[in-house]
Design brief:
The chain contains 22 helices and 7 strands. The protein is mostly helical. The structure holds flavin-adenine dinucleotide (FAD), ligand DLZ and iron/sulfur cluster.
């Protein structure tokens, strides 16, 4: 007890590292105690990439220090503390008993799993909305009410109007809402951006993570992520200076041994709370108005954040806790071992998995059109795909990962997010990358020993889901092309695809 009022605990989770967090705003630093905890429950609910765990713990430790400097009392549990109960709820119950606390206030977590666990605790709790987003749950519900289709583009326009970003009065800057058309250039010959800034890690955390999670998929070193708000801002500024001008042009391109191209690599920091999305967008907007970056780059980038990022969150909370378990296409194949680094002859997959292992990062098109596309074409159980993405990317929390994987990538939500499945044959990957030139398969071959598996599986997917997609106006053309092929060719494609999938299931190197 402090004075005659009761002490409250203020929970700050590993992805809530923002000084303007609603729970901190609501609390009283003279009276209340902040609780932060490194717990095995959060570190093992999927086999996270070691870099993701190290990033979380390093950033949590620094944030706890910042809070102390700001005058907060912080009770911090390290993973190796002998008293550690192993879960967020366990730590809150333990600390509540020690402080004779009246209850716990917290900002709503980004995963239903934890929302439910906190609500079931035998403590008085007060959950506050997470105000670090542009659209509240209520805003998204209002926007979605009565709409037959929840298309991102219309939501995005409302977010432009709401924020005033790139608006010229009530008109979009430049006359168009969306400049995506200019953002599809194939891979450049050379990349004149060195990628993100590199920062020194906390060696004690690296030691802890190596000892406890060293067997997980993913390289712990070299570790260079930003781990506090100042470093994250420094990286953002450097990227706006050097990466943003070409971000739009090469947003969809892929190059071997160039994992970052012109991407910002700020999703880790945005999602953990080290950067504020609206502030980031205002800086990018200012760079455009200063003549430093073209409109297609600034608009493309701002759309990802106030459009896609906010929209994904809206869908996750609107759809409810069962969303991640959806499997609209009835896919049941186990996730192939090549996702965990087993050898594969498909160079695009090998490159994407390799950089995922090295950096806990892959950019959007690699996630969507390489690993996601392959899983969808091969009919992998979306629950397995979901767990993989949640584990291997350092920016993955369910509120953003699940709609991207279950909805956008695997079409397992029956088309809430995507109007048609994101599938492609090898041709798209060939156009957008340099992967096919060094591949054991031949992207030009539609059948035969060396036929690119994406080519075989593309038709296999369309054929096996004909009843579901034939009437889709955006897919009719594909079925017409398939139907015009001679029957012998179609039979060969399907036979070879089945044989290839059988080899995959046997665990052969494919
Ligand atoms: P940039 O290319 O520089 O883009 C800027 C920012 O826009 C990103 O930092 C991110 O905050 C935002 N953004 C872009 N696309 C999306 C999107 N589709 N959804 C939400 N935000 C977006 N993003 C995550 O933050 N966490 C995830 O777990 C995640 N899983 C994904 C899974 C799949 C199958 C796909 C297709 C996409 C996923 N994304 C996820 C979206 C996107 O791939 C990443 O946000 C992006 O690659 C992060 O890298 P960056 O910061 O360099 O992004
Ligand atoms: C991702 C993660 C990890 C690896 N570890 C912790 C932890 O030990 N303590 C903590 O408070 N948060 C951690 N996190 C982030 C949480 O998993 C995240 O807050 C929830 O998934 C909700 O988004
Ligand atoms: Fe990937 Fe096919 Fe190209 Fe090989 S040929 S890199 S499998 S798209």
């Amino acid at each position: 007890r402090a004075g005659d009022r009761l002490v409250r605990l203020v929970l700050v989770l590993g992805d809530q590292l923002s000084l303007d967090l609603s729970a901190l705003q609501k609390a009283d630093k003279k009276q209340d105690t902040v609780v932060m905890a490194e717990v095995s429950g959060e570190a093992t609910y999927v086999p996270h990439h070691p870099k993701k765990i190290a990033f979380t713990f390093m950033a949590m430790r620094k944030f706890a220090q910042t809070l102390r400097e700001e005058g907060w009392r912080v009770e911090y549990t390290t993973l190796d503390d002998p008293e550690n109960t192993g879960s967020i709820t366990g730590e809150l119950i333990r600390r509540a008993a020690a402080h004779d606390a009246a209850g716990v206030i917290y900002t709503e977590p980004g995963e239903w799993r934890l929302i439910e666990a906190l609500a079931e605790m035998p403590l008085r709790t007060h959950s506050l909305p997470d105000t670090r987003f542009i659209a509240s749950h209520q805003d998204f519900e209002t926007w979605s009410a009565g709409r037959k289709q929840l298309r991102m583009e219309y939501f995005y326009r409302d977010m432009r109007r709401k924020t005033g970003l790139l608006m010229d009065g009530d008109k979009p800057e430049g006359g168009k809402w969306n400049y995506d058309h200019d953002n599809r250039k194939p891979a450049p010959d050379e990349v004149d951006f060195d990628g993100p800034l590199r920062f020194a890690p906390d060696e004690a955390v690296l030691g802890l993570v190596k000892a406890q999670f060293g067997e997980n998929f993913g390289d712990l070193r070299p570790f260079w992520f930003a781990t506090d708000a100042a470093q994250a801002r420094e990286q953002l500024t450097q990227w706006i200076e050097a990466g943003l001008p070409k971000f739009g042009d090469y947003q969809d391109a892929m190059l071997s041994d160039q994992p970052f191209l012109y991407h910002s690599l700020i999703s880790f920091y945005l999602n953990a709370g080290l950067l504020d999305p609206l502030a980031v967008c205002r800086e990018v907007e200012a760079a455009y108005y200063a003549g430093h970056a073209p409109l297609n780059a600034a608009e493309g980038f701002i759309r990802q954040i106030i459009g896609w990022r906010e929209y994904m969150r809206g869908i996750y909370f609107l759809q409810g806790p069962d969303y991640s378990a959806r499997n609209g296409l009835g896919h049941s194949r186990a996730l192939p071992d090549l996702y965990w680094g087993a050898e594969t002859k498909m160079n695009c997959m090998a490159q994407t998995v390799k950089q995922t292992r090295e950096h806990a990062y892959a950019h959007h098109i690699q996630r969507l059109m390489v690993t996601g596309n392959f899983a969808l074409l091969a009919g992998v159980d979306p629950a397995h795909v979901h767990k993989w993405y949640l584990a291997v990317y350092a920016d993955a929390y369910e509120w953003v990962e699940a709609p991207n994987v279950i909805g956008m990538s695997q079409f397992a939500d029956d088309g809430i997010i995507a109007s048609k499945p994101y599938i492609s044959s090898g041709n798209y990957i060939h156009k957008m990358s340099d992967y096919c030139g060094s591949c054991a398969y031949r992207v030009q071959d539609k059948t035969g020993e060396k036929a690119c598996p994406f080519n075989l599986l593309y038709w296999h997917f369309l054929d096996r889901h004909r009843a579901r997609f034939e009437a889709n106006p955006r897919m009719g053309n594909m079925y017409r092309v398939w139907d015009r092929m001679d029957e012998e060719k179609r039979t060969t494609v399907l036979r070879e695809a089945d044989a290839w999938l059988a080899k995959l299931d046997e665990g052969a190197t494919v």
